[in-house]
Amino acid sequence: MKIIILFFILYLVSVTLGVLIEPVFKDFKITKQSLEYTYDIDSTYYSKWNFQSLNYELVFECKNNSTTRTCAAGMSIDIAKNLHGQVMACVSDNNGELDCNHYFYPKHYPNPIIEGDFKPSTKGGPVIFKGYYLAIGLYFYTILPNTGLAIIGNPFGDSIDATNLLLDYQGGCGTRIIQWPNGYKYSFNHSNPVIDNISIESSSFISLGHNFCNSSESIQVYLDGVQIDKSKIKSIDHEQFEIIYSQEHSKSIIVNIVSGGLESNKFKLDYKPMPLKINSVPKLKGGSITIIGERLSSQVNNSTIIVKIGQYDCKNVISSKNEILCDLESVPNVDKVKLVDLPVNISINGIFNENNLLFSFDTPIISDFILPQGEVKLVGHCFGYSQITQINIDNVLQPNITININEKETTLSFRPILQIKKSKLYIIVNGTKSNTIEIDSSFFVKSVPSSPSVNGQTVNFTLFNINPNNFNATPIMTFRDNSSIKSTDYKNSNEYSTHTYSFEIPKSCGRNEITISIGDQLTRTEVYYELPKISSCSIVSNQMIKCLGNFTNYLDLFKNGKIKIQFSNMIIIDNIPKNPIIFKSDSFSFPMKPEYISSDIYLIVCDETSPYFKVDITPSLKSVNQSLVFNSTGGKLLINGENFNENTIDNTSVYCFSNKEDYNCSFINYTSISCDIELEGPFDQLCKIKFNGKDENYNISISYYPPLVLNSTIISNSSIGGIITIFGNEFYNEIDLITVGKSKCLNSTFINSTSISCFVEPSNFNINQTKQQQQQQQQYVNITINGKSGGNNLNIYFDNSIIEVKNQSSESDKNNNNNNNSKNKINDESKTDGRSLYEKYKKYFIATIIIGSLALIIVAFKIILYFNRKNGTVVYWKYIIKEKIYKFKNRKEQKCIDDMREILNNAEKNFPDIKLDNLITYKKYEIPQEKSVEGELKEQAPPLSEYDQFPSYYLHSPKDSQPPNQIETLPKDSPPPNQNETLPEDSPPPNQIEKLTEDSLPPSNQIETLPEDSSPPPNQTEKITDNSSSQDGPSSSS
Fold first, then answer.
1. Could you give the CA distance from residue 830 to residue 832 in angstroms, rounded to a whole number?
2. Alpha-carbon span 365 to 1006, nearest angstrom
3. pLDDT in tens, 918-936
4. Where does the chain cross the membrane (predicted)?
5. Is residue 772 packed enough to be buried (19+ CB in 10 Å), middle (13-18) or exposed (0-12)?
6. Whether CATH 2.60.40.10 fits 194-271
7. Per-residue pLDDT tens over the stretch 589-641
C-alpha cells in the first residue's frame, strides 16, 4: 500500500513539473487573412489550437530570429467558419517540448472583426451578426451592463457558421455595447425608425411603422420641423405612436420622429378636405351650391380652391373651414348626360378629398322653415315651379294651397288653411320626393311694417295663439348672434291670446332670421329689411349707364361694400381709373363696357336682391352715308348709331356685289364704326351692310372721283408733236379719250394711278412767244376715263428756258394742288421722245452754269485782291485782317512776344534757305532798328531808291508757324502776307508796328498765299538776297 501511495505522489510531481508555463505575447496582428503572434525568443508559444468539439485544429508556423519568435496561422472564410466553441491550446518551448493540455485563456482570444452594420430592430428578434473570430471560446454575448445576447444554435456544434451568426436580440433603444470575454467592446445602434402610414382621428393621428422605441423619453416627434411637447405623445410603442393634434383647415404637414438618436423618414400627412353634405340645383337654371363639411378652406392666402361636380366646374368659389359656396351653371337638356350621383371633387392647393359625396340635379331638399307673417316658408333647394310642386302634410296632399316659389327655387311659401300642429311635411317635384321635416305653425307672429328701414325703426309684432299660462310673460326677440331685445306692450287689446308688442329693430340690412319667445312658446320668423327700388335706367351722353331711384338710406351700406350692382350677368366692379361707380342719394351710374349686353339690373343688398329693371343696350344703327365717292384705291364707310361695343363690330361688315367680298369694320367708339373698303375703281359699286349679324336695308352706292390733271412734260416743237406724260390722280387703265387743246393725244398708255403718257398731234402753235403770251395761250388737257372727265390748263408747248420751265412747272403744281386738294406727288421723272431741250440736256446745262460761276468768282476775287493791295491790307482765307491794337493781357503773352523778337533776330541763322509766310504786322511793338534782321540786311544791300526810303514793317511770326513758301508783292497800306515785298512810297514809318486784336488773327493755315505769277506794280518790287530768310520772320533789303 505504501508503495502505491508513493508511486502516485511521484506521478503527480512528474506531471506538475512537466506542464509548461503560459505564453506571453509581445505583439499580435489579427486580420481576415491570418493570425500572427510575436513572442520573446525564450518564451513559450502557441503552436496549435484545438477546437475539441469540432475535431478541428488551427496550426501555427513559427519563425525565429535572434530575439523574437513569430507564429502565424493562415486564415480564410472557410477556416473562420469553424472557429467557435471551447479551445484547448498546445504550448511549446525552446526545447521542443509540447504541452496540449492548456485551456485557452480568454485574454488571449483574438479581437473580433465585424463586417457590415449590426442594426437590430428596437422591438428585438433574430438578427444576423457577421464577421471573423466572433465566437471563439463563448456561447453567448454580454450587452452592458448585464444583458445576455444568446447565439441561436449550438455554439459548440458544427451546425453554425461562426462568420454568420444568428443572434436572439431582446430589443432596446438607443446606443448599446457588446463586450467579449477578452474585454473587447463593440458599440451598436438600432435600425432607423420608419413611418409607413398615418391615420387621422378626430383629435389625434396614429403613426404606424417600426423602430419607434417604447419609451417617450427616448424619442422626439417633429411636425413641420418643430418638436412637439412630450405631453402631446399620447402613446408610444416600437411599431406605433399616437400624437394629440387637430387641424381645421386643409393642409399638408411633415411628420418625422427621432428614436434613440436616429432620424426617421419624413412623412407627408395631408389633412384633406372632407365634404359631407351638398344641396341640389335645377339643371336648367343652375344655382348656388353649398357644401358642408370639414377642412374646406386653407390657412394660406391666395389659395387655389377647385370644385368639380362630375364633369362640371363650380365657379366663383368662396370657402370657410366648414362651408364652400360656388356657382354651378345650367346644363343643356341633352340626352345621355348623367345628372345624378355625380362625384364631388374638391382640391385645395393640390390636396384632394377622398370621401365619396354624390350630387344630383333637381333633387328637392328642405333645409329649414320659418313662419313669417303667418305663412309657412320653406328654405332649401330645387323647389321647382308652383304649377308642378306639391305639398304633402301628414301624408295628405294639399291641392288647394297657393304656393309661391322664388326664381332660384330656394324658398317656398304658402299660407296653411288650418293650423299645422306638429305635422310631418315634404314636397314632391316632378315625381321626386324631398326629405321630411316636422312643423308646428300654431304659434306665429305678424309684423307691421313687414319690412323695416335699414336705418332701424320700431316694428309692431302681433303674437297669435298665446297660451294662457304665458299671458303675463314678456316677449323676447333673439337674433342669430344670440343678442336679444325685449318688447314693449302695445296695450292694443285685452285679448291676451292674440296680442301686439313693439320691438325696436336695430339698424341692419338683408334678411335676418329671428326667434320670438314668450314663456314656453317660441316661433321662428325673420326681419326682412326694406330693399331699394330702381325706377329707370338709361345710357347717358358720356357713355355711362345711369339709374334713378331713392337711395338715401343706402349710402353708408354702399360705402361699406354691402351693396353690389348686378348687370349683364356679372357684378359691376369699380376698376376704371378716373371713371368710377358713382352712388348718390337719387341715382347711381357706372361706365359702359363693350362686354355689357341688354339684361336686368338690380342691387344686391346684404345678399338680398332688389326688384329688377330691364336695361336695353342693344346696338342700333342711326345713319349711314349711302352715297360714297372713293379715290382709286378705295375708301371708308362710317356707320353711326348707339350702344356700339366690340361684339357689335365682330358681327358688322360690308358686302359688295361686284367681287362678292365682305369687308370688316373696326370699333371707333360707342357711336361710330368704320369700315375699310379696299375696292379699286373706276366702275361704280353697289354694297350692303350687315349690322350686328343682321342684313340692313341700306344699299351703299360707291362712285369714284374723276381724273385729276396736275401737270405734264412739255413739247419744244409743236409742228411735229411729241410724247408727253401727264401727272395727276385717279387715273385708270380704262382711258376713253385724251385731248390737248383741240388736238387729240393718241396712243395713250396707263403707267400708274398718277401717270399717263400719250402722243400729241402736230400743231401750228407758235412756240416763240413771250412768257406772258404763252401763259395766256395754255392748252386745256382733258382726260376722259369711264365716262368721267377731268382736266387743267397746262403749258404743253414751251421754249427751252430752264428757269422759265422750272418756275412755270412749280407754279402750276402749286396752283393745281391747291385747287384740287391733291395728296399725290407729281412724277417728274418721265422720259419720252417729246421731252424739251432742258429735259434732254439738263446735266450739260447744270455743268455749264457751275463752271461759269466758278470762273466769275475767281475773276472777282482777283479784282478785289488787286484793290486791297493798294489799300495796304493782306487778304487771308476767309479773313481780312485790318490794323488794330493787339492787347496782351498777361505776362505769358508778353513773354511770347519777347521770344518772337529774339527769333526774328536769329532768323537768318536758323532758316537761311526757307522763305517765310504767315507774317503779322504789329505797330505798337517796335523792334529796335539795330537788332532787327532788316538792319543787318541793309548794311549789305546796295543804296536804296526813293521808294525804299521808308523802312518796312517789322514782321513777326508765331513760334509754331510753318516756314513761308512764296514771295508776294502787296498793295499799298496792306499788312504783309506770306512773302516779302518792296513797300510803296507812302508806307508808314518803321516805328508804327501794326497791332491786331487777339480775335482778329486767323489760324496760320488760313492765310492766303497769292499765286507765284502775280506781278507787283512797277517800282514796288523788293529784292531779297538768297540768305534773307529767317525762322520766324523776313527782313527787307534795298
1. 6
2. 108
3. 344 434 434 444 444 444 4
4. 844-867
5. exposed
6. yes
7. 998 887 788 899 999 999 899 999 999 888 888 888 888 888 888 888 898 88
Are 777 and 760 a contacting pair, CB within 8 Å?
no
Q: Report whether 824 contacts 714 (CB < 8 A).
A: no
CATH code assigned to 708-765+775-795: 2.60.40.10
Class of domain 444-528: mainly beta
Q: Lowest mean pLDDT: which of 94-103, 301-310, 790-799, 802-811?
A: 802-811
Q: What is the CA radius of gyration of the chain?
A: 62
Cell numbers found for residue 241: 405612436
**CA dist., res. 785 & res. 681, Å (int):** 10
Q: Name the class of domain 534-615.
A: mainly beta
Nearest to 342 by CA among 357, 358, 330: 358
DSSP 315-368: EEEEEETTEEEEEE------TT---SSEEEEEEETTEEP-S--EE-TT--EEEE
Cα–Cα distances in Å, from 610 out to 131, 373, 408, 745, 926? Answer: 88, 20, 14, 81, 110
Amino acid of residue 571: I
Q: Residue 619 and residue 598: Cα distance in Å, rounded?
A: 9
Query: What CA–CA distances, in Å, run from 844 to 83, 806, 836, 1031?
Result: 125, 16, 14, 50
In this predicted structure, the answer to whether residue 421 has a pLDDT above a threshold of 50 is yes
CA dihedral 974, 976, 980, 983 (to 10 degrees): 30
Would you call 734 helix, strand, or coil by DSSP? coil
The dihedral over CA atoms of 619, 620, 623, 629, expressed in degrees to the nearest 10, equals 50
Within this chain, domains 274-359 and 534-615 share the same CATH topology: yes
Q: Is the pTM of this model over 0.90?
A: no
Do the bridges between strand 135-136 and strand 84-85 make them parallel or antiparallel, or are there none, so unpaired?
parallel
